[in-house]
Amino acid sequence: MKNSDLYAVITCTNNKGGIGKTASSVNLSVTLGALGAKVLFIDGDPQGNGTKAMGVRDKFNPATQTLWHAFRNKLSYKDVRVASSYKNVDVIAASTDLEDATDVFSSSPRRLKLFKQLLQGAEQDYNYVFIDTPPAKGGVLTPAALSAADYYIIPSFADSDSYDGFVKIVSVCEEIKDAENEKLTCLGVLITCLKKNPASQAYLDYVTTLLKSANLPVFPHFIAQSDSMDSARLLGKPAVTLPNAAALKDGYLANAKFIVSQIKESKAGRPKKGPDLEKLGLIKNSSPLDEMVIKETKKLNMEF
To answer: Which of 77, 90, 109, 161 is most exposed, with minimal Cβ within 10 Å?
Structure first.
């Protein structure tokens, strides 16, 4: 089976932890698989939450079928993948040994080629490869995942603290694009765990306008904070597979279709501008959100 015309490697990343990277990559993988795409999910986070959510903890040999084992022994994805509990989705499992990646590979010429070497030939078997990454700023796992990716997704909460996190990872991605991987493109910022309150809505209205003006796409459906998401975390399952999660399923379905359309446009050769780092505040001492905070503070002072 040759899928090269439909093939894409997508890295899910953000400098901050607990921001929804694993939930996003797991649920999008399962949703695309349900739509008929062949998907490989790679758990690049030593915590292994993605491995658990995909239901494979009892399906792989921890001594020979992990991402770490593949890296250490220069193995192919074919040697370490296992079938998940979900349609059309295979998994390469994480292990705590991945924490040693920085010590072992930081001075190795292979450090940025770890995922590239692993995935050689994967276009023959898959339409999409999702790589979940750890939150650490340093290390080799995230840069190596971005060096192998065609696209990246930035999950983020709808608050000003999260803005700094995804703006910094945009800077990292642009550096990797310039130095190592010229095809690397941002698919968009995916808002997760959205709270239904005026402050979150005000932030959301402001930041989505700002991101679009800076040439950073925003996923069309925001993932709201919900009981289903909380249950999924507790159960270690993809939220889209739970009963009574129709709204979540619809949301991830809309976002999965957005991914497909964005990639088709990209492969059709329609040029896209890269992120405008100045508008994002990366070439200035202050964030554009500072202006919003000042305005809101003045407004509150006038009211009192």
So the answer is: 109
pTM of the shown model: 0.90
233 membership: H or E segment, kind and range:
helix 227-235
DSSP-derived letter for residue 275 is P
Confirm if 128 and 153 have CB atoms less than 8 A apart. no
Phi, psi of 194, rounded to the nearest 5 degrees: -70, 130
Residue 292 domain flag: no
Query: CATH number for the domain including 15?
Result: 3.40.50.300
Give the H/E segment covering residue 260.
helix 246-267
Specify the 3-state DSSP secondary structure of 152: strand
Q: Tell me: the pLDDT tens digits for 229-276? A: 889 988 989 999 999 899 999 999 999 999 999 999 888 877 678 888
**Nearest residue to 162 (alpha-carbon basis) of 285, 1, 261, 15:** 15
Answer yes or no: is 288 within a domain: no
Residue 7 CA to residue 125 CA, distance in Å, equals 9
Q: Is residue 31 part of a domain?
A: yes
Per residue in 102-139, pLDDT (tens digit) is 899 989 999 999 999 999 999 999 999 999 999 866 58
Between CA 18 and CA 14 the distance in angstroms is: 10
